[in-house]
Amino acid sequence: MQLHLMSWPEVANYLSQRQDILIPIGSTEQHGPMGLIGTDAICPEAIANAAAAELGCIVGPTINVGMAQHHLAFPGTIALRPSTLIAYLQDYVNSLALAGFTHFYFFNGHGGNIPSVEAAFSEIYAERSYQRQGPSGQVRCKLGNWFRLPEVAALASQLYGDKEGNHATPSEIALTQFVYPHAIKQAELAPIHATARYATDSRDFRALFPDGRMGADSALASPQAGEQFLRLGVQGLIREYNAFVHHP
Amino acid sequence: MQLHLMSWPEVANYLSQRQDILIPIGSTEQHGPMGLIGTDAICPEAIANAAAAELGCIVGPTINVGMAQHHLAFPGTIALRPSTLIAYLQDYVNSLALAGFTHFYFFNGHGGNIPSVEAAFSEIYAERSYQRQGPSGQVRCKLGNWFRLPEVAALASQLYGDKEGNHATPSEIALTQFVYPHAIKQAELAPIHATARYATDSRDFRALFPDGRMGADSALASPQAGEQFLRLGVQGLIREYNAFVHHP
Amino acid sequence: MQLHLMSWPEVANYLSQRQDILIPIGSTEQHGPMGLIGTDAICPEAIANAAAAELGCIVGPTINVGMAQHHLAFPGTIALRPSTLIAYLQDYVNSLALAGFTHFYFFNGHGGNIPSVEAAFSEIYAERSYQRQGPSGQVRCKLGNWFRLPEVAALASQLYGDKEGNHATPSEIALTQFVYPHAIKQAELAPIHATARYATDSRDFRALFPDGRMGADSALASPQAGEQFLRLGVQGLIREYNAFVHHP
Amino acid sequence: MQLHLMSWPEVANYLSQRQDILIPIGSTEQHGPMGLIGTDAICPEAIANAAAAELGCIVGPTINVGMAQHHLAFPGTIALRPSTLIAYLQDYVNSLALAGFTHFYFFNGHGGNIPSVEAAFSEIYAERSYQRQGPSGQVRCKLGNWFRLPEVAALASQLYGDKEGNHATPSEIALTQFVYPHAIKQAELAPIHATARYATDSRDFRALFPDGRMGADSALASPQAGEQFLRLGVQGLIREYNAFVHHP
Amino acid sequence: MQLHLMSWPEVANYLSQRQDILIPIGSTEQHGPMGLIGTDAICPEAIANAAAAELGCIVGPTINVGMAQHHLAFPGTIALRPSTLIAYLQDYVNSLALAGFTHFYFFNGHGGNIPSVEAAFSEIYAERSYQRQGPSGQVRCKLGNWFRLPEVAALASQLYGDKEGNHATPSEIALTQFVYPHAIKQAELAPIHATARYATDSRDFRALFPDGRMGADSALASPQAGEQFLRLGVQGLIREYNAFVHHP
Amino acid sequence: MQLHLMSWPEVANYLSQRQDILIPIGSTEQHGPMGLIGTDAICPEAIANAAAAELGCIVGPTINVGMAQHHLAFPGTIALRPSTLIAYLQDYVNSLALAGFTHFYFFNGHGGNIPSVEAAFSEIYAERSYQRQGPSGQVRCKLGNWFRLPEVAALASQLYGDKEGNHATPSEIALTQFVYPHAIKQAELAPIHATARYATDSRDFRALFPDGRMGADSALASPQAGEQFLRLGVQGLIREYNAFVHHP
Known about the structure:
6 copies of one chain form a homohexamer.
Chain A: H1 8-15, E1 20-25, H2 39-55, E2 58-59, H3 82-99, E3 103-108, H4 114-129, E4 140-145, H5 150-160, H6 170-179, H7 202-208, H8 223-245
């Protein structure tokens, strides 16, 4: 049940019974020569929408731009500063909290979002801790990452081993291939570029990872594997989401 | 051509030929008892994607949350403060400008966004006027509103006259009905509520407009009319976009 | 009755009877070779002070610097970023709202202010919509533009036709000539420079409009016409202000 | 020479010869039962305009709202947060610095502005120290206070002794009486309220100083004394301004 | 070599040979009935100062207040909002980067700091990615946590097993006992309070963890164990720091 | 009694009896060829800790980085922008005020902090004046400067006359020599550099004061004098602190 496809009386009715919401969050950033720029939004959105059918929960509008400053040297990347993303998430959560939502599960497709999103949660809680807004303990936020769900990670490891890498991974590309079969790209890929160092700013990143991939053999991706990742992602999300919402 | 479905080398290739981008911008807000909460994002997104096929341009990720503070008293609404939206648009535009994009056409579905988006343009230009970033005159932003395209407004007027109203209008609802036929809502609608006064904050809005509609007879909407609105919207957008991009 | 010339007990007495205030807002920016840099502040201030005599309302201190980033390539211009102007207006309105003022009519002399001022209104309302401050619906802000009052626009059209232009217009210069006859400037004016494109940042503006005028034949201005504009401006402002304040 | 009454070519001509500017800064705040709310802006503005005739310098638009949070419990007060005033002054100075102004003399009428204005200077310099903007050492800001000019303070001491007090002082009220003779107020004044403690927030201030005066016998003011204060203020400002501008 | 005990020529000399700096970062927050409020600053500071003797590196001033909003319901806690901590770290790093420092190793004592510090790194890099400041790739920041050093965690596990808990742990208290033997506290401790849920705001935290400890049996701490933790912390920090600084 | 060496129940117990706190605030900045970079933090911290023994008050964690932008051209300096320092102090004070602290005495070692700290106080009060947080008049902040205590200034004048200067003064260096005898530096000092002009940004400062001292003959410092300064500082602080806390 996408929030965008509901009317407000339907939301009011939902809130009279439950107060949780599932929010896909991704990024708009390069994913190597054959990965889609929207990969990190497409993956959690697809899984969330499929899982919501069973969960019966509302899915909020996908946060499709995230913290991607390190990818800015590749065209097509859009990056929010952490401070912007924090302000954005504050408004997003505070708006829904006003209406009575209490449990916010952000389902994430981009590792680079994690610190900023967690910092945003603290900023949101801090407002309440300083007693500036609302009653205590009623807003609970959680971040889950689809690619770290145990069943997902296990399949990635089984299929790709250490060729999974860290960015433009075959697992995420496979999932997008299944969701958007007409957007599958072909590209000559250079041998996997190994580096022991993390990157800092965007030009540093590009110098370290010239085609944008971080140790990932994107070419191993297939739509068939993507379907498996979707199924396992749904399974994992349902379990994690229920654990979050039904926890005392 | 959605940016999210492209790879970065495809974007690089595009930029070697042209530097424009089309960006749908909407809102997540109540649209009366039978309008979809995502109406303002759905409409410009649908038109933009259809027009892009002919325009050959890239469509950026839809900005699906906007400045909707006045709707916050209805559940389901998510509102960015103007200051947040300005920061968000700065990062969105500056990211793409780094890569070489120069012409940013924002295609809008929500009247409430207009001042904040225009203010954001000025904030973006001001950075450059203060010489803090980049060369001069190379970033050009424009805001167009689908519901103010002459052909769209003419059809709305012809079909609905003054029952079109200002929010949860039959024209916008019609368009969403065509795009999402399975999400058509039924609702008992109170007689149109007339008011001469504009609203201020969200509780003031709800007191003035108890079911969320502003003088609009949403029930007049039909998917058939929606198809017409889509076709006219595409026609109008193509003309306006070309005028913007090809202007000397 | 200028707020600056009152004592606080006089304000307290006023507030026991009415809660409205009239606030001139302008800009400090180039107005072509013969226009005054303070034109956009001088015009609404002069009209507001004259109208207030009849309206019996308080006139707040003129906001004499506005959003003028596009004029920064001409010396003498002072520009607030939109974000700064928004913060400024928040504090201005919140201060007076604390004391009991409820109706804020901003009377504007500069088109470039409009989006930022409207965005500021939303930022002010949003504070209340998020329930962070004060009761609902008690702060009402409105922006009126002296140059768009029907009687003013009609006279400008009658006197100058399309030589009125959009910046450094003969109508605004005429009004300043009437108010400050000793500051009337003489200058050789180049032929009117026509352009179909809007400007972006300040260097782009100057490239498009080398002497600062936008299609305006400033030389047509006269103090006699200025007196007429003042009279019509007062007439229009009184009508608009009363409509705002006395609206249910 | 008020900036508002100049054209941009006149400013350009001035800048080809000198790069200094005099900027009155005041406040909009209660000044006791018989003081004007605009006192702190009126005083430095009147002195600055008179001095400028001899100095030949440009006078920028008066900053008529300042940091007055402690007066907010009295109606008519408008207060900028320090952070807002800092942002405002950044934009004010950066705008003029772009055009070539280098020496900014702020002539102040309100003690409460001092820390925020000095902090703003540091914020402006810090931008340059971090190398984010412009060449080094070219922007020089100075704050002078009219009421601390030695000749002004001496006259206040001679005329009023310790009845001068600290707010709504007879000296500042005298000056406004001379400038605005038609706005002279009469009021019954309670005996001077002595307090050894400084105030914190606005309600604390009002509890300590119930009618808004801080140890000042405002009733001693006279327009005649105001004329003397104006003359001495002009004399002192000219000396201080020249020392600032002509210093190596 | 503490930065605070050096002169600037000594720093200049150091920078001519190496460009790294070690920065302890902690928090000021409750640590249960017998833990010190400064625990999270004391631990990394003590280890850093001891390690620096061997590393030969400069130790920057300890960041002794951090992101601790969840502890605000206990007296003595001081918490920075994430946005404040981010701004603070930006200025800290940018200042030293101006002078030529390139490698910033933050040695952390508080888990709650991690997201905000990592977000701050991205904010710092983003400035450079947007090309707003300085050359690329020259500023490298890394966060290490003393309590996650393998040798430290191993000892904690060996000594305390699952009584180590997550806050006010015996290991951190032991270290402070060794460093400040005169500040060892005695307190009656309630049985360890188990909870499966994470906390949100400060009142929620206190409801979940009434005496401030999170599953930790603080009473197991001893100064003798503290000495071991210090020794192992130094050993681990030296290894990690060298790996960071000497990495290609 | 350092806050960092207390447990939260000890703080709770303290608050049941008194609500004041003493907070050393300094800077991290060059102090000439033989002064310590931490001088401005070391001095107030040492005096505060010694005075607290007699005062029985809590000493908060030292704020060891301040507003030092003008020193940024010398390596080792760390500077917060005024806006950052204001946000930092807001959080610092608001955190402790939540717990019940009411009297905040900041004991300062750096003249450059004064405007920003005073502005921060106003920002903190303004929050309350706008009624956004907490009851009125309960938070009282005061800034005292150790180097302006009458007995301290008298000794400096007696020992050093006009060779005391304004930065890297023999008095402050003497105090650090007494506190850190092993960190006493030797350096060839150029003759005292006299300048009548104040500095603006950091490069301007270095051009005016090439070795970082401002008219100070640092070489006159001795640990023996430092001991005297410490004793007099403690004496002065006790008097001033008591006057602040016990004032009605």
